[in-house]
Amino acid sequence: MNPGARLLILGKQGAGKGTQALRLSRHYVVPHISTGDTLRQAIRSGSELGREARRYLDSGELVPDQIVIGMVRERLTRPDTSHRGFVLDGFPRTVAQAEALSTILSPKGLHLAIDLEIDTTSVLTRLAGRRVCADCGANYSVVDNPPRVPGLCDVCGGEVVQRDDDTEAAIRRRLELYERETAPLIAWYDSRGLLARIDALGSPDAVTERVVAVVDRRILRRPGS
Ligand code: AP5
After folding, report:
1. CA-based nearest residue to 132, from 44, 48, 28
2. Which atom of ligand 1 is nearest the CA belonging to 89?
3. Looking at the domain that runs over 5-118+193-220, which CATH code has it been given?
């Protein structure tokens, strides 16, 4: 039986966190929890959270810790995640978020934090080619994964557009914040014996194979954990 998994994905913008998190959530049959997707859904719905979050997302700034920590805490206390696990995508992004997550997950903790390693030139190429469905958030690339009908989502038929924060200025700001706030988490998880570094270049299938091999080894070493 597939035992589930408790994973999070680190990596700079465009490393493929969303792409891999979705595949891993299907593989391990656990929920994919993306703080970016949750915030974009809140913006689309016009909720108070969405109105508050919009100004941060559009300019590439991080949403304040207390907002995202509250969102993730609420999601991780639902039974589907507490029983089988989860794949966290885009959380944590600051040391304060990592510390809060460690408390939320205690005593079970994580199986692994996966760091998708990639150079900045490659992520800039990927982000320039990224397109998303404005309705369901499905991800495409004009380079090698376009929708079957140009401009229309394969999944729901919605309009396929460029993300509002995939502008040059917002990408530059997101990458600066990654280096300052999020890159220190690599050493943070490494020092706790929880880090796996994965080469994020190559096809999405090749990257998934690398991640699954490392996660399976870790779960086999800690059966029933
Ligand atoms: P979020 O939505 O998480 O965006 P991000 O971190 O900027 O990451 P991206 O979605 O840009 O990249 P990705 O690594 O997921 O790559 P993807 O798989 O799409 O966050 C957005 C905003 O929300 C933040 O800026 C912030 O304001 C706020 N926020 C979210 N979480 C927060 C938190 N914890 N704290 C505070 N604020 C928070 O892939 C990119 C492209 O490459 C796609 O086109 C894809 O098709 C393609 N691709 C993927 N893999 C491959 C491959 N192997 N080969 C070729 N192409 C590939």
Report:
1. 44
2. 3
3. 3.40.50.300
